[in-house]
Inverse folding.
């Protein structure tokens, strides 16, 4: 074996040892969080999460959008939403029957309240009362819509800070 | 050999940089974390919300009257129990016991009344939806005050007539014992209930009106009891002002490490959020049934009870209009997530209010942290907890942080003791 080869082997062995020992020594400072997300016991929000507030329903029947009566949906405060419903080609849908549902998919629980559509405001607008979020994180809000003899559903995603 | 040394030097340098980064990332806060800390800061507590169900909520005279009622043990079956028996000001309005003791033994731990004006739900299971409706629960509980509303109406007549009338108007004459029996109320006790049901509707309403006004006066008093800023709040203030010296003076490195765990890996903030460190909602954390007690399904029963409560927001005794009662109208009253769910306690002054959990199952905060670290299977429903994997040192850091939340109470000093 040439001397040069030996140097390379020794260098790489030392390097490996230093990295491993260094990592072990740093563990108490870094904590297990950088090893693997699984060790953290918490899931992160999906990267590709669509949090837009205006979307086409699952089967493409309705264009649905929501807005909160408070600028940003607040934590721990009951409030109302306005839901706007149009056909896929942009005509307001009136007289729809709408059910509200939702929850935190990563925690396996539903909404803390039972929100309901309490008023058809006309022009495709509906008042949704009783909205509330009591935890920060990733929420889903689903609407099941029944209108013009057709039904479809839509799930909105939102992240509460 | 030179090359090897160069290699080694480079690696050591890299390690040093990583170490430096790791250390600084433990002592500085990201913008998102700063926003989270600000959300927990007492300065984020909004102004006292109105209580539309209580027309006397902000009436100073009613608060003064409520203060007297709160400490008056004549309002009980044995003359020994007042609200203050369990809600002792010197113990942050709790009693230091696992289970509250009135004229008998209860099955739940006393909750503090500090800051409860901010909560839409009262009690561990939220079976009441206002402070005044809450105050009326124990007064007619057979194991707490143990008395009845006819007895109380007569006591008001005897000891507080002038004061009552100056706030609420004319007090009816309750001296006719045939119309107003000694002990009558819509309680579980069969004899007391039968006596109540034998009374004329108008007479029952006259008694209940006085009883309701007692609750509203007590609530007017309780609304004035607020948590005081703690060392944690001084730390956040320092952070907001960029004052590192104030931050170091407020919290130790150990406490800051605990705070970091609190908002991150320990996931406490999921439920203990907002400036009162509670979301005032209901969560199943799988706390074991206390020895000698029956299975407690918590919110599942509480939600049913508040819906049919005679003093709820939509009741005839409430001063609220229907639109003021959104929490009750849109209450979640069924589903598995209510089974065994209880309200998260406020963590302000938590170190002063041991023991912990709804039946005082844990004597110390260390035991509480052990529970969250290795959550057991829930006795009913499904626990929302997952194992945290905190080391003993990390658990002690969270506890150290929790101790920094003790700041006491803000209220006029005369309200923190029995009235003269």
């Amino acid at each position: 074996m040439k001397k040069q080869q030996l140097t390379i082997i020794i260098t790489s062995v030392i390097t490996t040892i230093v990295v491993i020992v260094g990592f072990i020594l740093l563990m108490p400072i870094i904590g297990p969080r950088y090893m693997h997300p699984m060790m953290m016991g918490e899931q992160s929000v999906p990267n590709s999460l669509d949090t837009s507030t205006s979307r086409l329903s699952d089967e493409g029947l309705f264009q649905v959008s929501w807005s909160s009566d408070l600028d940003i949906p607040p934590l721990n405060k009951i409030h109302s939403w306005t839901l706007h419903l149009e056909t896929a080609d942009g005509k307001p849908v009136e007289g729809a029957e709408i059910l509200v549902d939702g929850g935190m998919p990563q925690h396996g629980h539903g909404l803390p309240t039972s929100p309901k559509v309490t008023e058809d405001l006309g022009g495709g607008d509906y008042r949704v009362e009783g909205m509330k979020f009591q935890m920060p994180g990733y929420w889903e809000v689903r609407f099941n819509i029944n209108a013009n003899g057709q039904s479809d559903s839509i799930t909105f995603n939102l992240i509460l800070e | 050999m030179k090359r090897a040394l160069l290699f080694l030097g480079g690696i050591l340098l890299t390690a040093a940089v990583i170490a430096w980064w790791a250390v600084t990332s433990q002592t500085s806060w990201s913008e998102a974390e700063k926003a989270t800390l600000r959300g927990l800061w007492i300065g984020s507590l909004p102004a006292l919300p109105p209580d539309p169900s209580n027309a006397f909520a902000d009436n100073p005279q009613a608060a003064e009257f409520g203060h007297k009622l709160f400490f008056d043990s004549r309002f009980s079956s044995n003359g020994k129990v007042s609200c203050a028996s369990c809600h002792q000001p010197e113990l942050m309005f709790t009693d230091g016991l696992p289970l509250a003791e009135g004229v008998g033994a209860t099955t739940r731990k006393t909750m503090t009344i500090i800051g409860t004006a901010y909560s839409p739900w009262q009690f561990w299971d939220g079976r009441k939806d206002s402070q005044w409706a809450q105050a009326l629960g124990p007064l007619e509980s057979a194991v707490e005050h143990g008395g009845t509303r006819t007895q109380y109406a007569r006591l008001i007549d005897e000891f507080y007539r002038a004061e009552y009338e100056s706030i609420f108007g004319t007090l009816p004459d309750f001296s006719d014992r045939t119309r107003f029996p000694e002990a009558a109320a819509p309680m579980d006790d069969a004899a007391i209930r039968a006596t109540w049901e034998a009374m004329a509707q108008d007479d029952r309403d006259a008694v209940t009106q006085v009883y309701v006004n007692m609750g509203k006066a007590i609530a007017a008093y309780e609304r004035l009891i607020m948590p005081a800023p703690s060392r944690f709040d001084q730390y956040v203030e320092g952070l907001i002002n960029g004052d590192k010296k104030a931050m170091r003076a407020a919290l130790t490195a150990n406490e800051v490490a605990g705070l970091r765990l609190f908002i991150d890996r320990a996931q406490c903030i999921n439920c203990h959020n907002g400036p009162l460190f509670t979301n005032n909602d209901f969560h199943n954390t799988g706390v074991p049934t206390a020895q000698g007690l029956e299975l407690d399904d918590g919110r599942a029963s509480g939600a049913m009870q508040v819906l049919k409560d005679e003093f709820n927001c939509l009741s005839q005794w409430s001063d609220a209009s229907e639109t003021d009662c959104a929490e009750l109208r849109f209450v979640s009253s069924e589903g598995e997530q209510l089974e065994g769910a209880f309200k998260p306690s406020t963590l302000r002054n938590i170190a002063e209010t041991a023991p912990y959990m709804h039946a005082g199952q844990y004597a110390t905060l260390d035991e509480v942290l052990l529970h969250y670290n290795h959550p057991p299977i829930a006795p009913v429903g499904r626990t929302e907890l997952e194992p945290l994997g905190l080391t003993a040192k990390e658990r002690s850091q969270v506890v150290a942080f929790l101790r920094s939340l003790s700041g006491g109470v803000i209220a006029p000093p005369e309200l923190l003791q029995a009235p003269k």
Q: What stands out?
A: The mean pLDDT of chain B is 96. The two ends of chain B are 88 Å apart (CA to CA).
